[in-house]
Design goal:
Belongs to the bacterial ring-hydroxylating dioxygenase alpha subunit family. By secondary structure, this protein is an alpha+beta fold. It has two domains: about 45-145, Rieske Iron-sulfur Protein, CATH 2.102.10.10; about 160-415, Naphthalene 1,2-dioxygenase Alpha Subunit, Chain A, domain 1 (Alpha-Beta Complex), CATH 3.90.380.10. It is built from nine helices and 17 strands. A seven-stranded antiparallel sheet has the order 11-17-16-15-14-13-12, with helices on both faces. A hairpin with a 6-residue loop joins strand 6 (about 105) and strand 7 (about 115). The radius of gyration is 23 Å and the shape is globular.
């Protein structure tokens, strides 16, 4: 009998039961992690950054993804470009991970020099017959969607990114993300597999017991409930909320604010889900009292009461509100280690201490991310335990986890596992 520790990945995928979490090896094994990087972070579109981080010519962000590294920059013609962070001479890294400003890209090894459009400008001692024209930096597939930067490391990126773009461009346009600015950023290392990070984010079953700060502005009923187990009063409140949500959604749509759920989470390559949800309490923003954090609203927004436009994809989540936005990017670091990079965006002219208080702006999602990191840690510890066996998802509050697990298995098989 083949042990789970050495079973082929295909056997682990075949063992996954619909409606249940994944077999342990799909969360814990190094060979599965390597396959995940190759499939989901090499062959699919991933959220990599924000256009507003590359405001001026020469602004650059370098992102490491497994063994790959990608340079995002704004060139001298103000176009955003993406390149593999590999010198065309002998492969040295051009830039370290993180932000920076460059006038040219100069290899630290032998000083081969590239223009911001990727063309090779200088390569010393290569002979008079050396053709610089065929040694430009290798481009990375790039798609700009409403101010978000998506990249794909494949030479044949999925074409259904068009659906995401067509859906999100009109939804994101009023927020003016391309002209926003990053007010704050945190990097949190979660000690768990990236799929556990994504699963944790795709349900709010745990919210009431784990996220007191977030629950001030989140409405738990929006993320599912089991009416059969509720008291009559609880069921009446939940059903009233659903009716109110549907009426509000229709009203927002009629007023020209796209709100209805668009979900491409199964039978697709580019996985995403979006909807506009009301904010609880004062109804304006994800802050300690649910009131707006910034006096200057984003983009062309004129109202604070238009809720929270959510956008989930397979390596992150986003919340777009009238006064600010929160964008989180997930990058796997190892089978048991995941980077969650969160950015808070405000209007480009908003001034800290005048238009917004940084603590009010950031405290809810800082607390929530730290709490989630602990939940992911205990989840990963559990799936490593010999006693672990895949457990059943709630049909009422964890359907998105079942969708994600099914999509994961399907995409692995599409790519030969």
């Amino acid at each position: 009998m083949v042990s789970p520790a050495s079973a082929p990945i295909a056997d682990l995928l075949a063992a996954r039961r619909p409606g249940h979490s994944l077999p342990a090896g799909l969360y814990t094994r190094q060979d599965v992690f390597d396959a995940d990087l190759q499939v989901f972070f090499g062959q699919h579109w991933i959220l990599a950054g924000l256009e507003c981080e590359l405001r001026e010519p020469g602004d650059v962000q370098t992102l490491d993804i497994g063994r790959a590294s990608v340079i995002l920059l704004r060139d001298d013609d103000l176009q955003i470009r993406a390149f593999h962070n590999v010198c065309r001479h002998r492969g040295a890294r051009l830039l370290k991970a993180g932000p920076g400003v460059v006038s040219r890209l100069v290899c630290p090894y032998h000083q081969w020099t590239y223009d911001t459009d990727g063309s090779l400008l200088h390569a010393g001692h290569m002979g008079a017959d050396f053709d610089r024209g065929c040694k430009s930096l290798k481009p990375v597939a790039l798609r700009l969607v409403g101010g978000l930067i998506y990249i794909c490391l494949s030479d044949n990126p999925p074409k259904d990114i068009d659906v995401l773009a067509q859906t999100m461009e009109p939804r994101l346009a009023p927020y003016g993300l391309r002209e926003a600015k990053v007010a704050h950023q945190t990097d949190v290392i979660e000690h768990g597999n990236w799929k556990l990070t994504m699963e944790n984010n795709r349900e709010c079953y745990h919210c009431a017991g784990s996220h007191p700060e977030l629950c001030v502005s989140f409405i738990a009923y929006d993320f599912g409930f089991d009416a059969a187990t509720m008291s009559p009063d609880e069921r009446a409140r939940a059903e009233a909320h659903v009716a109110e949500r549907e009426a509000r959604e229709a009203r927002w749509e009629a007023e020209g604010h796209p709100s209805r759920t668009v979900a491409r989470v199964v039978d697709c390559a580019t996985n995403f889900r979006t909807q506009r949800l009301a904010i609880a309490g004062k109804g304006e923003s994800h802050t300690p009292d649910a009131s707006a954090a910034s006096a200057k609203l984003l983009g062309s927004m004129t109202r604070k009461d238009l809720g929270d436009t959510h956008l989930w994809h397979h390596n992150g989540w986003n919340h777009f509100m009238g006064d600010h936005a929160v964008c989180s990017i997930v990058i796997p670091l190892g089978p048991d280690s995941t980077l969650v990079r969160t950015k808070w965006l405000v209007h480009q002219d908003a001034v800290e201490g005048v238009d917004y208080d940084l603590h009010k702006l950031t405290s809810v999602w800082i607390a929530t991310t730290d709490q989630d990191a602990e939940l992911v840690r205990v989840s990963h510890a559990g799936v490593q335990d010999p006693a672990y066996e895949p457990g059943p998802y709630s049909r009422h509050t964890e359907q998105e986890l079942d969708n994600f697990a099914g999509w994961y298995v399907d995409r692995m098989r599409v790519h030969g596992y």
